[in-house]
Amino acid sequence: MTKTETKSTVLLKHHLKALRLPTVLVECEKVAGRCAAENADHLSFLLQLCELELIERERKAAERRLKAARFPATKTLDGFDFTARPSLNKPLVLDLTRGDYLGRRENILLVGPSGTGKTHLALALAIAACGQGRRVRFWRVTELITTLREAEEDRQLGRLRGQLAKLDLLVLDEFGYVPASKAGAELLFDVIATAYERTSVILTTNLPFENWTEVLGNERLTGAALDRLTHRSQVLETSRESYRLQDAKRRRRSQP
Ligand code: ADP
Ligand code: MG
Predict the structure, then answer these.
(1) Of 155, 189, 194, 238, which has fewest CB within 10 angstroms of its CB?
(2) Which pLDDT value is given to residue 177?
C-alpha cells in the first residue's frame, strides 16, 4: 500500500465514523476488493455498502425494539397448536400477525380460561408487530398498576404517561386476576382512555366482560373502559378447557 492510499484510507475511516456509518467503515475495504475483482462499477460498489449499512441498522433497531418491549418470553405462531384450540379463528389470527389492525388503531381482546394460550398469542402478535417496526410494550396489568402508582408518588406520572403515549401497541396481560384498588383502577382507566384510537391494545383476560366490575370496582368506569376497548376490536376466544389441563390429561392417558 502506498503512503497516499494509507492516508486516504485513514481519512475515509475518520469521515465514516463522523458520519455514523459503522457498517460501511467495517465493510468498505472488503467490498472494494470484491468489486474490483468482479469489475463492478462505482455506483454498484456504493449501492452494496448502503445496503449493508441499512440492513445492519434495521437489525439493531429491531433488537432495540424487542428489548424495550420487555417480553417475558418468546412465542411464535409456528409453536402454536391450533388444533388444540378449535374455538379460535385461525385465518383471522394469521391475518392479525400482518399488523394491519395497528394502522387502524384497533384492539385485540383475548378472552378465555387460564392456560389456554392467551399470553402465548399476545406475545406472538406483539413480537410480529415489533418486527414490523412498531413500538411495543408488554405489561402484566398488576405490574402496570404498581408502576403507575409508584410513578404518581414520585411525581413521574406525566413522564410514564408520555412514554406510554408514544407506543404503537400496548399489551395488557392478565386483566382480572387481581382486583385493582380504587386509585389503581382509575390509573388503569386513564391509560386505556389515552390509548383509545391512538394506540392499539392487546388485552388478555380470564374474566367474561360482565364480571369486569369485580376488577375495576365501579360500574361506570368499567362501562367506559369496555366501550373504549371493544369499539373497533377483534375478540378472540380461546377454548373453555385449560391447555395445561388437557396436556396433563393427555400425558396421564399416554402413561402405561
Ligand atoms: P394463558 O395466558 O391463557 O393462561 P398461556 O399462553 O400462558 O395461557 O399458556 C400456557 C402454556 O401453554 C404456555 O407455555 C403456552 O405456550 C402453552 N400453550 C397454550 N396453548 C397452546 C397451544 N394451543 N399450542 C401450543 N402451546 C400452547
Ligand atoms: Mg397468561
Answers:
(1) 155
(2) 85
Residues 132 and 58 sit within 8 Å (Cβ to Cβ):
no
Of 204, 243, 247, 250, which is best to mutate to test ligand 1, by the most ligand atoms within 8 angstroms of its C-beta?
243
Average predicted confidence (pLDDT) for the chain: 92
Instruction: Give the residues surrounding ligand 1 with Cβ less than 6 Å away.
Output: 75, 79-81, 84-85, 112, 114-120, 204, 243-244
> What's the pTM?
0.86
Q: For ligand 1, what atom is nearest to the CA of residue 112?
A: 3
Closest Cα to atom 27, ligand 1: which residue?
117
Q: Are 199 and 228 in contact (CB under 8 A)?
A: no
Question: Which pLDDT tens digit goes with each residue over 148-163?
Answer: 999 999 999 999 999 9
The ligand with the least distance to the CA atom of 115 is 1
